[in-house]
């Protein structure tokens, strides 16, 4: 299987829309699946994506205003599967590599970079013992990180490794109950001790309700030594730094609680309801100094993420309808902390960080998605609408220049000195962006061709031309929106 997609929006937008849209994106995907013999198979996959845009006002291509930013992903992997004919044991050997390169220009002269790569290897075994199953294996991960926050900003590079093993199973109890226990042992190169992550899931499907209802509950402890860092000076999430958690500190931990119900109330109606809570501890959060793009290292925070998800699906002959809604809240809390020995203050004598409770930049309270599809023979029409409440951001009060502390009052040269730019901020993530919503329409027509089928697609993106924010530059006041109303065309060839 092979697919390739490339946008033409930057080339056709002046003609179709009467304005220039300086965006370009595309992807390449390839997959090879081969049965080597009756007992083994090999799967190889490759994926590359690229996104590019000039974030200058109106796509200004003048050299002094040009702000080309790029995001490039690569992923390659392979999986070998072996199932011997004489026993019910499945063996899998997997190797995967992925990387992400981000280049972001908040101003024409400032360039932020963030690179992350991941190499994963694992060997897993599955014993299929009738209705019972036992899975276990070993794995290893290696990650490399490199980032730079502007010309005079913070920079760093690091690498981390983790190895571990796991075992999990599925065991039915009678005809209505299933227990799925498991445990994961992992050793992190950054952590101060080894971690054990027990987890369990319970599934209850009562026969007296016709087997159309399923109740489930799950609990588990999870660990991760990789953290995503957002710049407090950014209004949107265009740029994220991926980094290792601080050395010689406990690995970030999350304890999950999940309970849900899934029921088929009618042959054509399915409803799902789920509630969850995550207790977060030993999280790392950046502390920005007063200087632009200067990180004073990490602070330790704990937090809670909780919410409910509801989904309704209707499937009736040629009609499909889906409505999902999520209500959630994420809150972080930082205790009073002594900065000495943990942080590296850049300016001033920072000794103590005050106690603080705040909502991080990914705290989206409400999210709603709905879609409708109608198929009539070889024709299909689809409508999709998305809504998301505003994300938190930190308002910038203003900028000011500061001179060196060693100004000599006997020397008047400092009167004309440029100084260094400092930033004054409001409450940490105390404001929220405008809501996001968008309506998309698509139409498909299928044709039968020799040895396959050909599908033509046409659609409208952002039908009512909602101006959803993509990036807001706090240095210049320049706002860049996401795609306006724009037509889309495509062809898909399926070969049998």
Averaged pLDDT: 85
> What percent of residues are in strands?
over 45%
Terminal Cα separation, in Å?
11 Å
Number of helices: 1
- Helix-strand makeup class: mainly beta
Biggest sheet, in brief? 21 strands, antiparallel
State the helical fraction.
under 10%
Radius of gyration: 27 Å
* Number of E-type strands: 31
Q: Could you say which overall geometry the principal axes of the C-alpha atoms support?
A: globular
Residue windows where pLDDT falls under 50 for at least 5 positions: 340-348
Description:
By secondary structure, this protein is an all-beta fold. The protein has a domain at 364-394 and 429-496. It is built from 1 helix and 31 strands. The protein has one helix at 9-16, and strands at 2-6, 23-35, 40-54, 68-82, 89-107, 110-129, 132-149, 155-173, 177-188, 195-204, 213-223, 226-230, 240-244, 253-266, 269-288, 295-316, 319-334, 337-338, 352-353, 356-358, 366-376, 379-388, 392-393, 396-402, 420-425, 431-432, 436-449, 452-461, 469-473, 478-481, 486-495. It has a 21-stranded antiparallel beta sheet that branches. The longest helix has 8 residues, at 9-16.
Fold topology:
Elements: E1 2-6, H1 9-16, E2 23-35, E3 40-54, E4 68-82, E5 89-107, E6 110-129, E7 132-149, E8 155-173, E9 177-188, E10 195-204, E11 213-223, E12 226-230, E13 240-244, E14 253-266, E15 269-288, E16 295-316, E17 319-334, E18 337-338, E19 352-353, E20 356-358, E21 366-376, E22 379-388, E23 392-393, E24 396-402, E25 420-425, E26 431-432, E27 436-449, E28 452-461, E29 469-473, E30 478-481, E31 486-495
Antiparallel strand pairs: 1-2, 2-3, 3-4, 4-5, 5-6, 6-7, 7-8, 8-9, 9-10, 10-11, 11-14, 12-13, 14-15, 15-16, 16-17, 17-20, 17-21, 18-19, 21-22, 22-27, 23-26, 24-25, 27-28, 28-31, 29-30
């Amino acid at each position: 299987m092979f697919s390739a997609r490339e946008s033409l929006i930057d080339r056709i937008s002046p003609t179709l829309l009467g304005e220039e849209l300086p965006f370009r994106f595309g992807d390449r995907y390839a997959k090879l699946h081969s049965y080597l013999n009756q007992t083994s198979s090999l799967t190889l996959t490759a994926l590359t994506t690229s996104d590019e845009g000039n974030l200058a006002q109106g796509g200004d291509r003048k050299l002094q205003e040009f702000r080309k930013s790029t995001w490039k992903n690569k992923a390659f992997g392979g999986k070998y599967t072996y199932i011997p004919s004489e026993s019910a044991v499945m063996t899998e050997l997997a190797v995967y590599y992925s990387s992400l390169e981000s280049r972001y220009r908040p101003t024409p002269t400032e360039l932020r970079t963030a690179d992350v790569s991941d190499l994963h290897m694992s060997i897993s075994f599955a014993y299929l013992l009738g209705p019972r199953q036992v899975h276990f294996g070993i794995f290893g991960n290696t990650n490399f990180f490199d980032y730079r926050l502007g010309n005079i900003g913070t920079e760093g590079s690091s690498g981390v490794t983790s190895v571990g093993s796991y075992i999990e199973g599925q065991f039915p109890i009678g005809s209505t109950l299933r227990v799925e226990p498991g445990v994961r042992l992992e050793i992190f190169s950054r952590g101060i001790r080894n971690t054990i992550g027990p987890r369990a899931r319970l599934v209850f499907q009562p026969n007296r309700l016709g087997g159309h209802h399923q109740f489930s509950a799950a609990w588990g402890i999870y660990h991760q030594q990789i953290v995503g860092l957002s710049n407090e000076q950014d209004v949107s999430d265009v740029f994220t730094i991926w980094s290792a958690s601080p050395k010689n500190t406990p690995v970030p931990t999350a304890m999950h609680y999940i309970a849900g119900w899934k029921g088929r109330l009618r042959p054509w109606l399915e409803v799902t309801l789920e509630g969850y809570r995550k207790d977060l501890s030993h999280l790392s959060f950046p502390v920005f100094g007063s200087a632009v793009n200067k990180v004073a290292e990490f602070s330790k925070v704990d937090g809670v993420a909780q919410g409910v998800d509801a989904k309704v699906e209707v499937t009736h002959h040629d009609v499909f309808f889906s409505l999902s809604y999520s209500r959630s809240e994420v809150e972080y809390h930082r205790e009073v902390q002594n900065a000495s020995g943990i942080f590296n203050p850049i300016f001033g004598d920072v000794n103590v960080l005050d106690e603080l409770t705040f909502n991080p930049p990914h705290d989206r309270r409400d999210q709603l998605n709905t879609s409708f599809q109608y198929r009539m023979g070889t024709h299909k029409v689809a409508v999709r609408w998305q809504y998301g409440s505003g994300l938190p951001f930190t308002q910038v009060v203003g900028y000011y220049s500061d001179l060196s502390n060693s100004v000599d009052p006997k020397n008047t040269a400092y009167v004309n000195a440029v100084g260094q730019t400092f930033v004054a901020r409001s409450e940490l993530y105390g404001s929220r962006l405008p809501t996001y919503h968008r309506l998309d329409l698509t139409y498909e027509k299928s044709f039968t061709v020799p040895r396959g089928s050909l599908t033509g697609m046409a659609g409208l993106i952002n039908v009512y031309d909602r101006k959803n924010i993509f990036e807001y530059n706090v240095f210049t006041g320049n706002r860049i929106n996401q795609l306006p109303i724009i037509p889309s065309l495509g062809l898909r060839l399926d070969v049998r």
